[in-house]
Amino acid sequence: MAMNMEGEETIEAPIGKVWEALNDPAVLKASIPGCESLEKKSDTELAATVSLKIGPIKARFQGQVELKNLKPPHSYTIQGEGKGGIAGFAKGGADVELKEQGPNETLLTYKVNADVGGKIAQLGSRLIMSTSKKLAGQFFSNLNEQVTKG
């Protein structure tokens, strides 16, 4: 089942600092809802374990994340795939773009496309879509918090 969504987040920090955060495994781990571990495999590859509850199903996904199309400090694509055993799988990507709004303000916009299958996909598109929107929103507001707290 495929989904697409987009959104934006204004971050009170210079563009360089936001870009750094988007490439920092510790910041990403703290920002991803349900992230148990995030390990850097190379400059553009990460391995992650994420536990999520979607409706009645609780699943732990083991996954790979790759950063592509890097255009520092303006944009990149983050792509990932996670397997959650009998719960199913999720794979997808997000195009993330940063625009300087001022010396200390950055507008982050994202476009996400994802595909889920297995048991999770049987929960119905409304629940999956609303959960995905919530998780994406949570990720970017967590990221915002991580960037601006320092």
TrEMBL record:
Any coiled-coil regions, as ranges: none
CDD domains: CoxG
Listed InterPro entries: CO_DH_gsu, START-like_dom_sf
Superkingdom assignment: Bacteria
Protein name from the UniProt record: Carbon monoxide dehydrogenase subunit G
Organism, scientific name: Nitratireductor mangrovi
